[in-house]
Specification:
Blueprint (H helix, E strand, L loop, with lengths): L1 H26 L17 E5 L5 H5 L2 H10 L4 E7 L13 E7 L3 H17 L4 E3 L6 H10 L3 E5 L10 E3 L36 H15 L7 E5 L10 H14 L4 E5 L11 E4 L4 H9 L3 E5 L2 H8 L4 E5 L4 H4 L6 E5 L4 H22 L1
Parallel strand pairs: 1-2, 1-4, 2-3, 4-5, 5-6, 7-8, 7-10, 8-9, 10-11, 11-12
Keywords: Glycosyltransferase, Transferase
InterPro entries: Glyco_trans_9 (IPR002201), LPS_LOS_Heptosyltrfase (IPR051199)
Pfam families: Glyco_transf_9
Length: 363
């Protein structure tokens, strides 16, 4: 397993080095090395290009989408993502009109790419946005979109000629908040920067989630529902015995709590005291997590998904910096590991109590 992870790291490093070298070479032909600001007439058709299939990256795009909708309420916002699963999380957000999906498999990609490009160009977008500072896929998508104006970050390796460019905000480390600084390059009016993630859930998704959760739990749970996701990629994942000890600690500290483990469909429970719940429908999964009273996970897509639903979240970080990837939400907290399972249980339960007190004051 360690050998497999090491090979994957080498492949990622090689791909990153090739991408950086190619970008620097292309930047010699046509580059946008310095910021260029100019107020735009209020755009009515906007395309946001985030050609990536990772769940966390999709959720971390939502602060920008919400900020765009608040800053340009008359605009129709389309989003270009990769894969056919993540788009369901964005399509019901305020201001979002449609989510276009780039296939991940080679044959559907070749078969559908030309029709997709034609469709994008027929939309006659006023503005295309690349929210990332190093994505060649995003830049290619903007280049072929046919948008009248193109907005992104200025950089020495920014090989796409942009009409509007912002300086990369080195003072803002968080990946989900950096794109918000793009908006100042296109408007002279105050920018509405929304710094929390969100997902657009329907009543139908919530109803299905409620039914699935009740079917999994059997009898109605009287106490709080505490959710957790024990998986993560590479060095971000905590060992199984840590999670088992954490489950034991929660049951000792909150005997009335019901533990719900979010798993891949059909996956087993990590501990006998936990009820496994899983679905491949991300909208339904978000609606399931929304019913939790608290949620804990390592740095992963479900961690960000939980924060986007408004659930109190405790994020565990051991291989990635929390200042870049912490869950964004008023009820969220990120800690670095190692941390004792009992201490993590106390933190999450305390976070839940703080939330209950806040809701009582507001109510």
């Amino acid at each position: 397993m360690d050998h497999e992870h090491g090979l994957r790291r080498l492949i990622r490093r090689a791909r990153r080095a090739l991408r950086d070298r190619t970008s620097r070479w292309l930047a010699r032909l046509a580059a946008t090395p310095t910021p260029c600001h100019a107020p735009l007439p209020c755009p009515t058709r906007i395309l946001v290009c985030r050609v990536n299939k990772r769940l966390g990256n999709t959720v971390l795009l939502t602060p920008l989408l919400q900020s765009l909708a608040a800053t340009f309420p008359q605009a129709r916002i389309d989003v270009l993502v990769q894969g056919r699963y993540n788009g369901v999380l964005l399509e019901n957000l305020p201001g979002v009109n449609r989510v276009h999906e780039v296939p991940t498999e080679p044959w559907p990609l070749l078969r559908r790419l030309v029709p997709l490009i034609r469709h994008l160009r027929r939309q006659r977008y006023d503005l295309a946005i690349d929210p990332n500072n190093h994505s060649s896929s995003n830049r290619l998508a903007m280049a072929v979109s046919g948008a009248r104006y193109r907005l992104g970050f200025a950089a020495a390796d920014q090989w796409l000629k942009l009409t509007h460019a912002a300086a990369f905000p080195d003072h803002e480390p968080h990946t989900g908040l950096q794109p918000l600084y793009l908006l100042a390059a296109i408007t002279g009016t105050p920018v509405h920067r929304i710094k929390t993630t969100a997902v657009g859930l329907t009543d139908h998704q919530r109803s299905r989630a409620h039914n699935r959760l009740q079917a999994s739990l059997g009898a109605a749970a009287d106490g709080p529902l505490i959710g957790f996701f024990a998986e993560a990629t590479g060095g971000k994942q905590l060992p199984g015995d840590w999670w088992q000890a954490w489950c034991t600690a929660v049951q000792e500290q909150a005997p009335d709590a019901t533990l719900v483990q979010i798993v891949r469909p059909g996956g087993p429970a990590l501990a006998p005291t936990a009820t496994p719940v899983g679905t491949s429908d991300l909208g339904e999964l978000a609606a399931i997590i929304e019913q939790m009273d608290g949620f804990i996970a390592a740095d992963s897509g479900p961690m960000h998904l939980a924060s986007a639903t408004g659930v109190p979240v405790l994020g565990l970080f051991q291989a990635t910096p929390p200042e870049r990837f912490a869950p964004l939400g008023e009820l969220c907290c990120a800690i670095t590991t190692p941390v004792e399972p009992a201490a993590a249980a106390r933190m999450l339960l305390a976070l839940r109590k703080q939330t209950d007190e806040l809701l009582r004051r507001q109510g």
